[in-house]
Amino acid sequence: MRARRGCAEGGIGVSPSEQSETVRDRCLFRTTSETKRLVVFADIGQIAPAVLLPALADVVALRRDVRLVAVYLVRPVGGMLRRFATRGARRMQVLLGSGRWERALDVVAADPVAAIAGRGIPVRWLPSGDPNAPSVLASLREEFGASCGLNLYCMHRFRLPLLAALGRTINYHNGALPGMRGVRASNWSIYLGHSHSGYAFHEMSEALDDGRILIEGEVELARGESAADLELRKALEAAARLPALVDAIASDAAGRGQTGVVGYFSRADWLRICRVDEPGSLDAGEWFRRIEAFLKVETVIEGRHVQVTGIRRTRPGTRPGFMTSDGQWLQVTAIAFWPAWVSRLGLAGGSH
Question: Is residue 60 scored above 70 in pLDDT?
């Protein structure tokens, strides 16, 4: 208690209960030689970082053994305008009956940077999106004195010089490990019909998603739930585990090695399953599975390249539509989330 009074402005003889919250925060930010100096890399245009970044700032603000010294953003804060535009378009699509509202859109539209701006934490933008840039490495060593890192959806691979500059570096992965390594784990969980979808905070190396696991969990999949809303539920649960993660960082907890069957899903796998050259090559069930899991499938309908985002079974010949490999007729009800009739008027949708 004596140390806390001593760091307050005019704090001699002032009891802790009488100190302002601002003064307490200043005291908590005084570091020692053992304090971990944490740097975060985040893509705030994604759901999980929009949830986890402000939650992490709140957790670390109450600690003396871990301090958040800098945040690097993959995309600029100015990207908020694009996110608001996307949110407005999706609301219009819901009104037109060609889309469904997702709770996750409200989260992405929020500004997570505002939650940390008032704490005096430096926020930098990576113009190229690459954290391995020499200027970044220099700042980590000379300006911030980084001793640990956390990656929240910065998709560039962290090379050895960056990992060395950061010290121990943790990654948030939106899938169970090692079975769901790679990208878009939530989408693949839905597509594969899993009953649960996991997440993990794990150590980083140059290899992808193979480090020791510090924190992990899973949520049960809800019927008809979109990948975005599944992402949100996992991120909210992961946010509740952040105090345990910070404990592990502070104590240099070893975590556990990954065990079990390894599965890997690449960007090429995602592009391949979301692109169908001939719509009649798939059966009706496969069409519904792909759109439910990945939201859109690129194909050719009536000679036009489009992103199909809505379909329904109907009578043969209903346009725009196609016959599946199992003899069912599917009508395209939405293209790029807009009603098919809007796209056919040239107001939205795919390219010729």
Answer: yes
CA angle centred on 279, ends 275 and 319, rounded to 5°: 125
Q: What is the pLDDT of residues 227-284, one digit of tens each?
A: 989 999 999 999 999 999 999 999 999 999 999 999 999 999 999 999 999 999 999 9
**Prediction pTM value:** 0.82
Enumerate the β-bridge partners of residue 103.
Answer: none
Instruction: Supply the DSSP symbol for 223.
Output: T
112 φ/ψ angles, rounded to the nearest 5 degrees: -70, -20
Nearest to 287 by CA among 254, 321, 318: 321
The SS3 call for residue 70 is strand
Tell me the C-alpha distance between 341 and 332, whole Å: 10
Sequential DSSP letters for 84-109: HHHHHHHHHHHHTTS----HHHHHHH
Of 39, 73, 74, nearest to 56 by C-alpha is 39
Rounded Cα distance between 4 and 19, Å, is 10
The CA distances from residue 9 to 3, 14, 20, 119, 191, in Å, are 12, 10, 10, 18, 58
For the chain, strand residue ranges (E) read: 36-42, 66-73, 123-125, 148-152, 168-173, 181-182, 196-203, 213-220, 264-265, 297-301, 304-313, 321-323, 329-335, 338-339
